[in-house]
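Sanity check. The docking grid for zinc ion depends on where the pocket ends up, so I'm generating a full predicted complex first rather than guessing from homology. Inputs follow.
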Amino acid sequence: MNTAQALELVHNYGCRVFEAEHFVYKSGMHGPAYINVDPVLYKPSAIEAIAKLLAEPYLPFADDEIEVVADPAVGAIPFGHDTAQALTQGYQPYYKMMYDYQSAKRTFGVLHVFAEKHKQPDGSETFQLDRTGFAEVCKGKNVLVVEDILNSGTSTRGVIECVRAAGGIVIGVSCFVNRGGVTAESLSVNQLNAIIDINMVQYEASGCPLCQSNVPIVADAALGKGSDFAEKHPDYVGGFKYLLD
Ligand SMILES: [Zn+2]
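Predicted complex below; grid placement will be based on this.
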């Protein structure tokens, strides 16, 4: 599936993509494009369908089949959870994941863990597998890291680091939307798959060429921080516009 097909698919789930406009992002940066994936988050059927696509590149059964899915809390959790389930269903014909023949016990298929963010005294952030047993299940296992949105890749890198620290082998990263032009290399993994791959250029507010050209700012409350900008800078020369009904 290419990005255009994926965009058409997620549009049906209420996911909206805008281009050639002027947005203020949650980070405070400005840019011409916006993708709002929130409407898929409250639709489990949409998450399930997307998770099947996240699992797909990792389904061919080989020595590096995925044993654990890991993701950063909280937005990526439903995607990771359903990806683990999709992998389990995909591996079922091979039985290896489902049965331990030596003990003849049923096992639990592909497992799912999430890492939680910790703010450090110096302001930086790290991720840790805090919950009971989460670090242990990664030890010596093939792990797929799942992400909802890749911006700079900071959270993803944090999860990769804590999985490796727990002794897990990170096989790859699968994400719903890569909007930061993040590469496998920059994440230090061999494989990165994105269902939607759109590189959204971002500018510091102070040097934004769209502001300099007086392009109206999108001020819908559901589309970034344009509404906050409108409150703080009501006399912005380019004015404001609304894209949602
Ligand atoms: Zn701007």
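Relevant for the grid: The first strand starts at residue 16 and ends at 18.
Also worth noting: The CA atoms of residues 62 and 91 lie 10 Å apart.
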